[in-house]
Design brief:
This protein folds into four domains: 30 residues, no CATH class; 65 residues, Hypothetical protein rpa1041 (Alpha-Beta Plaits, 2-Layer Sandwich), CATH 3.30.70; 87 residues; 60 residues, no CATH class. It is 61% helix and 7% strand. It is built from seven helices and three strands. It has a three-stranded antiparallel β-sheet with strand order 1-3-2, covered by helices on one side. Helix 3 runs antiparallel to helix 4 and helix 6 packs across helix 7. The two termini are 83 Å apart. 14% of the residues are buried.
């Protein structure tokens, strides 16, 4: 049966023109469409495919040039069903995203690693500090003695002011000398420890060279990390194996030294 596209009236067969609107009749009226969603075209295409899979074939994507946004339309009779189907689509999408986040390994908070400082270097620092403190302390004492004997006559100060200056500056310079003595003792102590540490480092390196070979590491990882595909993950996996071996065999080593030895051994093996 023919229809008028303007007034939507239905006519009998054989009539080709609407008497009221003076327009040609059509065999079927165009279905009115309603927008059900807007967003990126790729997502709307996925949603439209989902609608078709669930019995809604009238989906159509158009670009709103005024708003510069894509819209998904469906025929008005399909509107209610389309809204229900898209509700299911969005719920499934949200669940998939949540599952994906749960499956991804949580990023561990990486604490700043302690930086290893060679004990010989630390001993040298104490030695330098000791010399500096002794120099300032002795120079200050000499300065006060010169003031007391009038060698520095340009200091015309009252007796009370001089006495206060002697007490304050004398105490300060004596503190410098005291710290200088402490620094010298620390220098000697750490220097002795550095010799022991060097022997321990040589022992650890010999153990790693013998026991932690490429073959042993590859066997323990069993293909869990690939240097070409993910160099960073490969590095952390290897150094973790080396650190575990050092800590198991030499449990008294400080963490910073263990990390340095592991990194040095990794470099010897793979760089």
């Amino acid at each position: 049966m023919p229809w008028c596209p303007v007034c939507k009236n239905e006519y009998k067969e054989g009539i080709s023109r609407c008497a009221d609107c003076n327009v040609d009749l059509v065999e079927e009226l165009e279905k009115e469409t309603k927008a059900v969603y807007f967003g990126e075209r790729q997502k709307l295409e996925t949603m439209n495919e989902f609608l078709k899979e669930n019995g809604v074939q009238s989906g159509n994507i158009t670009l709103d040039e005024g708003e510069q946004v894509y819209e998904l339309f469906v025929a008005e009779p399909d509107l209610k069903k389309a809204v229900q189907i898209l509700g299911i689509f969005l719920q499934e999408e949200e669940e998939e995203n949540e599952n994906r986040e749960e499956e991804q390994p949580k990023k561990q908070k990486i604490e700043p690693a302690a930086v290893y400082v060679d004990k010989k270097y630390r001993a040298d620092e104490y030695k330098t500090s000791a010399y500096t403190l002794f120099f300032v302390g002795v120079l200050g004492i000499v300065f006060l003695i010169c003031m007391g004997f009038g060698v520095l006559p340009f200091f015309q100060l009252s007796t009370t002011t001089k006495l206060m200056m002697y007490v304050v500056l004398g105490t300060l310079f004596l503190v410098f000398l005291g710290f200088g003595v402490y620094s010298i003792k620390a220098y000697k102590r750490i220097l002795a420890e550095s010799d022991e540490e060097e022997d321990k480092i040589k022992e650890v390196e010999a153990h790693l060279k013998k026991c932690v070979t490429k073959e042993a590491i590859n066997a323990s990882l069993a293909g869990q990390a690939d240097k070409d595909q993910n160099p960073e993950a490969f590095y952390f996996a290897i150094t973790e194996v080396i650190e575990e071996e050092i800590q198991k065999t030499f449990p008294d080593l400080e963490e910073a030294l263990v990390a340095k030895l592991a990194e040095d051994h990794y470099t010897r093996l793979y760089d």
